[in-house]
Amino acid sequence: MNQEKINRMLQEQDSESSEFQRKVVESTRKWMKASANKMNQYHAGWDANSYIYRGYRILDKDDADSMKDGEPPKVIVPLTYAQIQTAISFILSTYTQRDNMLELRGNGPEDERNSFAVTTDLSYQLEKQQFILKLYYWLLDSLKHGIGIVRVEWMEDFVKMRVASQTPDYNIGSMFGSLFGKKVPMKTEEAVQEVLSYQGSKITNISPYAFYPDPSVNLANFQDGMFVATEEEVALSSLEAKEGEIYWGTDKIPRTMGKELYKERSRRVSGPFNDDGGINDGITDKDNTKSDKIIRTEMEVSLSEKNATEMFGAKFGSGTKPIKWLITLGNDQKVIRFENKGYLHGRFCHEMFEFSPDHDSFFNPGLADTISELQNITTFFLNSHIVNVKKIIANRFIVDPSKVQMDDITDGSMTIRTIGGQGDINRVIKQLDMHDVTSQHVTDMGMLMSLVQTITGVNENALGQYSAGRRSATEARNVNAGAAARLKMHATLAWLQGIEPLGRQILSNTRQWRTKEVYENIVGAASLDSPFEGAIFADPAKLAGGYDFVPYDATLPTDRQFQAGVLQELFGVLVQNPNTLTLLNKDPSKLLDHIARLYNIKNLRDFDLKPLGPPGPAIPPTPKVVPNQVAADLAGQGAEPVDMTGEGVLKGLIQ
Question: Of 320, 343, 369, which residue is a domain's last?
Fold first, then answer.
């Protein structure tokens, strides 16, 4: 069954009338349920981490009463927020000290030359996708929830633009003139055309709540599983807008989900701050006011053509090598997409990294989980201290109600009147002595925060602060290096687990789908030294062992600057002593161009000397009159006198 036949069948039939769709829906729901049963175990913990990170808590009755009296409610100490934000700031700063985050290097001279142009292409794609912002979300998810996920796909985006076009100006005169061989005049007309605005990788952040991998393998090894899926709530109109391009049969998606189907998974596409009531589950929304919301489930499943044929009852072929199929369901009931994606990299189009990877565990905690109990104790100490201080501040008295005016006490009067003659006033009214038993809590909070910093490595130095006490400059450098080492480890792990594999997917997709016209527009003049045929559309055998990504290193911005420094010294030697040009057989102009590329200087050719105009007529030397004795000496040496008579000058001009 070819792709055209599949699309037509999806467009014309629903899942009830199509045996193929029914089997696809049943298999997809079965796999999703198995994954959800595993992943849902962590959602409650992620909810708690999200509340703590945002400093959000539901006010209780005591808080409401305190706010009425103008007193502060209980709070959550933003310790987790400070730790996560500091860690992300450090990691982002180390990644962004390079001009090109995905920097390539060649295994040979020909690869090194092409790597500059391909690096420019990759950087263009990251810039267009605002990758720094998406990397922030990626890191935030891994620190809050333990895992961060992105999806990468190839896309072409078109926009409508007004353009001017030249069209023949046909009229009676021009048509008559064309009979006698005259050219038809042209006229300028305005038109609206669809223009390619972007061709490249599309990078999307995936919420951990919406991520459903194969539970038979650890999360770190999800690429080795049979499937991986994502689920999100979308507007029906967004699916209908892509009908006939990406999706097929969107008008046949059921607008409601039955009770049993909706409850098949304990949670549907929502985190703690999302509205769970967006989907028409057929129970809470009897009047269909939510029927414009659709649960879109997208699953990549690894199956051979033979297994897909047996499982879904359609003829896909007899191949036994697993390939990646993309399945999209609407409301768990209608197949609106089924195709072989055909990416040459052979991976699921997702990449993930963990905050604290451990190959022995299916799931590993994030930073928020690691310090959650210490966070709770710190918050308890602060709130208990606040509550106790409020009690101490309130004046409390021991009173004999038969000997004082109680109205003065209950009304908070500055004067308290007694009744009748009294003896010792302390036997009539006495202020109750209060002792703050939580005074040590603030000190204990400082100790807990120090313990948190020891556990995470995000300490005063990483926060831009210095501990008390004197220290030398050497000691300060050593302390800073030690503080950076822990955070650098997490940055390195994130690079190896997720960012480098993501870069390899982008590179593979670029080699597979990039067109020559777009490539030359992106790299500009670099295409002269690195033509499309050599950098992108090259021999696959050469590309397989070609350029590679530069390993992450947070100690230096890039090793290319070191290379540029060495070559600069060589350039200075060549310029100062031209005799070395022949000895070393090096071209200084080519060497200077390479140094500029290492420094990411892209406009060096703007400083080239402009060529001079065509040479003019030769200017004869100006005759010089010398004394007779000097002329006689020159004549003795072979010099000839110049004829300055009119005839002689004319003869010289003619010659």
Answer: 369
pLDDT of residue 107: 63
pLDDT score of 618: 55
- Give yes or no for a contact between 279 and 54, defined as CB atoms under 8 angstroms apart: no
Q: Provide the residue count of the chain.
A: 655
Q: How many CB atoms lie within 10 A of CB 339?
A: 15
Closest CA to 134 of 152, 118, 116: 152
Structure tokens at 462: 């990483």
Q: Is residue 440 part of a domain?
A: no
DSSP string, 356-367: S--TT-SS---H
629 and 604 fall within a common domain: no
Q: In this predicted structure, what is the pLDDT of residue 529?
A: 81
Residue 176, token pair as written in the block? 């008559």
- Are 589 and 653 found together in one domain? no
What's residue 124's pLDDT? 94
User: pLDDT value at position 280?
Assistant: 64
Is there a single domain that holds both residue 591 and residue 631? no
What's the angle, vertex CA 631, arms to CA 629 and CA 632, rounded to 5?
65
The predicted model scores a pTM of: 0.76
The residue among 2, 1, 21 whose CA lies nearest residue 11 is 21
Which tokens is 376 given? 């709770």
User: Same structural domain for residues 47 and 87?
Assistant: yes
121: exposed, middle or buried (Cβ count in 10 Å: 0-12, 13-18, 19+): buried
Instruction: Kindly state whether residue 331 falls inside one of the protein's structural domains.
Output: yes
Give the count of alpha carbons within 13 A of 524, CB side only: 6
Q: Which of 342, 369, 396 finishes a domain?
A: 369
List Cα–Cα distances, 560 to 19, 488, 628, in angstroms: 59, 21, 69
Q: Which amino acid is at 287?
A: D
Say if residue 317 is in the same domain as residue 247: yes
CB 360 within 8 A of CB 417: no
Indicate whether 562 and 652 sit together in one domain: no
Whether 603 and 643 share a structural domain: no
Residue 271 has a CB neighbour count (10 Å cut-off) of: 16
d(Cα 331, Cα 228) in Å, to the nearest integer? 18
pLDDT of residue 407: 83
- Nearest to residue 313, comparing CAs of 636, 17, 23, 617? 23
Nearest Cα to 150, choosing from 160, 167, 135, 132?
135
Q: What is the mean pLDDT of each run of 10 residues along the chain (655 residues)?
A: 88 90 94 94 92 84 78 85 90 83 72 80 93 96 95 91 78 69 77 88 94 94 95 91 92 87 79 62 62 89 93 89 94 93 91 92 92 90 81 72 81 79 76 72 86 81 56 52 75 92 92 92 86 77 57 54 78 80 79 78 72 56 62 66 54 50
**Is there a domain that residue 157 lies in?**
yes
Q: In which domain, by residue range, is 632 found?
A: 623-655
Question: How much is the pLDDT for 536?
Answer: 83
The verdict on residue 423 lying in a domain is: no
Non-local CB neighbours of 509 within 8 Å, separated by 6+ positions = 152, 154, 201, 343, 345
pLDDT of residue 561: 67
Domain identity same for 252 and 289: yes
What span, in angstroms and rounded, lies between the C-alpha atoms of 553 and 95? 9
- In DSSP terms, 156 is beta-bridged to 199
Number of domains in the chain: 3
